[in-house]
Amino acid sequence: GLLDYETALNLARYLEHETDYVPWNAALTGMNYISSMMSRTSGYGLLKKHFRTIITPLYNLVGFDQKVGEDLLLTKLRTKAVSIISPNLKGIVACTAIEKGDEAEWEFALNRYMASNVASERDVLLTSMSCSEKPWILAKMLEMSLNPTSGIRKQDAARVIIQVASNSLGRYITFNFIREKWTEIRKVVSNKFFSRIIKAVASSFNTELELKELIQFREERSEELIGAERATQQAIDRAKNNLNWMRQNYQKVVDWLQRVY
Fold it and tell me: Who contacts 193 (Cβ-Cβ below 8 Å, separation ≥6)?
């Protein structure tokens, strides 16, 4: 309701003097949700401005680099702070380079991934490659995940799809990809991973059209979703909750932001 979000948004303005992990963790979790709901709306610019105003003092305080003997909670707080200022935080530096870069940066990461024999490095590179803000690069990455000669390992196919689906720009691209390439995807993706994919895809679905398409997808593929029915139902429930949030809170949040900024 109005009181809930107006109170929360007002309280968040007093966090700039707070350095304790617990209140920040609660606030940042709420900010991430609101951000995911509003990222494709006209009010998102004001929301980003609001978040930057709150978080910049914290960011200046905790800095970018971990210090020797540092408290674990401070390390966790830094990661959360940076992730809001630089969305899609994963391998912070690599992610930001690809997010803001072009095909050259993405190809560089791909070549590094193909050449690497270190699992942890490959994980960071794959995750970073999914940070791109270019829809065509995300679509290319999805196509490559199913192509055995693309350089992306077969065992990484599901992970690539999950990572692209976790990018706010990549969610709908991934949903289209799942529907178009259903047969091929089911050959390489287990039920466990498919459950994670459908959850990632639908996590920020918040329009009537998206909800309708998700329900239609379940109806059309019901027999083939055996083993992933629960995850699909949870995704539909999440989309319903998101749609309700938009109906009840979106305009109130925008009105508040317009008054403050």
Answer: 158, 159, 162
206 φ, ψ (degrees, to nearest 5): -150, 25
What are the extents of the domains in the chain? 2-85, 88-129, 134-248
**Confidence at residue 93, expressed as pLDDT on a 0 to 100 scale:** 65
Six token digits for residue 234: 């949870």
3-class DSSP assignment, residue 120:
helix
Residue 100 amino acid letter? K
Separation of alpha carbons 84 and 87, rounded Å: 5
| Residue showing tokens 């606030």 | 27
CA nearest 203: which of 165, 230, 177?
165
Write 59-65 long-range contacts (CB < 8 A, 24+).
59/85, 61/19, 62/19
Distance CA 83, CA 89 (A): 5
Single-letter amino acid, residue 70:
E
Q: What is the pLDDT of residues 32-80, one digit of tens each?
A: 889 999 999 999 999 999 988 888 887 777 766 667 777 777 777 777 7
Tokens of 43: 């009010």
Three-class DSSP labels, 218-258? HHHCHHHHCCCHHHHHHHHHHHHHHHHHHHHHHHHHHHHHH
| Spatial separation of the C-alpha atoms in residues 62 and 68, rounded to whole Å | 13
pLDDT digits (tens, 9 = 90+) for 150-189: 999 999 999 999 999 999 899 999 999 999 999 999 888 8
- Asked whether the predicted pLDDT for residue 246 surpasses 90, the reply is yes
Please state, in angstroms and rounded to a whole number, the distance separating the CA atoms of residues 81 and 63: 10
For the entire predicted model, the pTM comes to: 0.84
User: How far is it, in rounded angstroms, from Cα 193 to Cα 155?
Assistant: 11
